[in-house]
Structure formats: structure tokens, C-alpha cells
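The pair is set out directly below:
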Amino acid sequence: MDTVNYYLSEWEMNELGYDLFYKSSLTNHKALALEVFKVATLVFPNSFNPYDSYGQLLKDSGQKEAAILMYQQSIDLNPGNEDGKRELKRLLAN
């Protein structure tokens, strides 16, 4: 493995997380997907997208309070995230 030139793509991690959550038949695939997004927020802490995606999967997993926190962080990083604002408003209204 070429560790000097290794590249980790935020978008590839995003795709992996969504594929695991929605398309995989692996045991515990949803838990694995959540871990992918948790790691993505650590690896790309200044990008709003991993927080937004993590919020979506937390919401879809029934983890409302954690989803709210992720959407809030996503919006803090990108105040123009209108989709995140809509989801946050829905979560807070319910």
C-alpha cells in the first residue's frame, strides 16, 4: 500500500455510508453506516456535509436528539444549508 500518496475522499466516505445504510445486506449494516459518518465528521471537521448526512441517518434510525445536534453543526458550518435547516425545523417541531 502506498501510504505516502493515499487519498481519502469525503465524497467516497459519504457514498459508502449511504450504501451501507440503505443498500447493504451485511449484518449490522446500519450501525456500520453510522460509524462511517461519525468518522467522516472527525476526518473532515470543517465540512458541513458529513454532519448533514450523519444527521439524516441518525434521524432515519430514530435518534432524534443526536440528529438535531448534527444538523445544527452542519448549519453552523454552512449557514446556506437550506435542506439542513428544513430537516432541523421538522425535527424540532415533532
Observations:
- Residues 21 and 87 are 19 Å apart (CA to CA).
- The chain has one domain: 10-93.
